[in-house]
Sequence to fold (298 residues):
Amino acid sequence: MTDNQSATRTLLEPLESPSGGYTMLALDQRESLRRMFPAQADGTPVTDETLRGFKADAIELLSAHASGILLDRPFAVTTDRPENLASDRGLILAVDVLEQPAGRAVINTTLDSEATVDFIQHVGAVAIKLLVIWHPGRGIEERAALVRDFVDLAERAGVASLVEGIVRPDDDGDWPSHAERHEAIVAAARELSALGGSIYKGEVPGYVPGDVSAVRQESERVTAAVDGPWVVLSNGVALEDFADAVREACRGGARGFLAGRAIWSDTVSTPDPRVGLRDRSTRRLQELTDIVADAIGA
Fold:
């Protein structure tokens, strides 16, 4: 093990599950979370306070069951480390500003100028995270500069860095085929992970709705392309498919997950989200943790 690998391993220790791998919870959604809630009686979207309340409940009820928790600065980590975040769980701070037109997915990201070294250290984050929208034929130099600035911020703060890649066609439309999307996921992993970062976070390789049969093989390709640990996210995966997708991805070399929607999305629109978070989401997190431990140890 090189000195750099040893240093990275030390930085990642606060995010590791006692049973093995990384079993991390994502709660950094912003406008996409707002759209999950039913509109208010007057037809307007829910307020910022509704988002803050949901995140606070989820932190309280779920953080003890995850090896780390990803939170945003605008709605979850405004001034200090959340008081209801389990003290022995690693805080991952999202330091990305999301450009997201109304009713659409995120189209671009930049670094949050308010997520300074002082702020990262003040809130006790052990890692920071950056989302990068990856296109096969454009934006190569811009995203390289963005990731390098992000990695530099993490190094100056003395924390781990998680680079997340989401792949899109150059025209931001639909992929012409599943095969082209699968190739893009591998290519993005290869390109973005080479720019630095402690962990790479990517979409589930080889996944097709209702079918995880190609996930292991495609995950092996990502493992070969990434020089370091990588984990899967749940965006784009049907809730009922995610557990099997995680199992196959870990069998192909992934070291776990950093996921949100597949764990808690179906609680948002219920009359009392706390009930669903306490019951369904807690159970899912434990089941996913067991899957990661079994798959990595197999």
About this structure: The chain has ten helices and ten strands. The beta strands are 22-27, 68-72, 90-94, 96-99, 108-111, 127-134, 160-167, 199-202, 230-232, 256-259.
